[in-house]
Here is the input.
Amino acid sequence: MSTSSLRLGVNIDHVATIRNARGGQHPDPVRAAEMAAKAGADGITAHLREDRRHISDGDIDRLMGAITLPLNLEMAATDEMLAIALRHRPHACCLVPERREELTTEGGLDAAAQHNHLAPYVGQLVDAGIRVSLFVNPDRIQLAVAKAMGAQVVELHTGAFCDAVNEGRAEDAASELERLRIAAREGREMGLEMHAGHGITFESVGPVASIPEFVELNIGHFLIGEAIFGGLDSTIRRMRALMDQARSSSTQIA
Ligand SMILES: CC(=O)[C@@H](O)[C@H](O)COP(=O)(O)O
Ligand SMILES: NCC(=O)COP(=O)(O)O
Here is the structure.
């Protein structure tokens, strides 16, 4: 675990994706979580999808028993997932939107439109002592609704910014980064703890990590993919170093 003001949550979903390509036990996401802890992660994130395409119920059982880092369980707001969360009581639950046919989580929750559906889930998780986060796009209305529902945390979806960086669309990247900056500030002013994640790479992490209101970044797909070339330990260490570098340069400027 690091002493940085910016925590790194390592998402291990796609270790399970590779395992599931053949069935069986290898590679084991729990082993990846243990390695992540040694490499300087501050938390582990796992998304138990309704279709179980990567993380399984058994993975969550084993993670809860094995890891020393806090677990952030990403889940859809359904009765099935609520029962699983209440049984395990992870450190945090992040409510995310899910569509069966999507390749990945394409956007944030529309908390404003789904207020009546989401609010009881937020309430029951908070009452169980679980830290609740809503995964939303950088939009003031979504933040205000999340706060009004009782969520303590909001995770801003960084996918639009990261896609623009990957595709070399500099103007879009600049405007998406500005949206993240504004929303991070607004959310903090509302009293929300601000997290960010989705699609972050070595190239896109710096600008996101420089936003001072963020206290946690959740990063998965890129780390697991890059680990094929650089090894998991050194890939996580490099991401951690880039985060720290960005945070310390932005502190010096501020
Ligand atoms: C909610 C989120 O952003 C992550 O959990 C990430 O999406 C990994 O899971 P998928 O790639 O299956 O969406
Ligand atoms: N909530 C975002 C997350 O956990 C990781 O997303 P990604 O890096 O796998 O895209």
Notes: Strands lie at 7-11, 43-47, 71-75, 92-95, 131-136, 153-157, 193-197, 214-219. Residues 11, 13, 47, 49, 74, 96, 104-105, 135, 197-198, 220-221 surround 1-deoxy-D-xylulose-5-phosphate (ligand 1) (CB under 6 Å). The chain has eleven helices and eight strands. Residues 76-229 form a domain with the TIM Barrel fold (CATH 3.20.20.70).
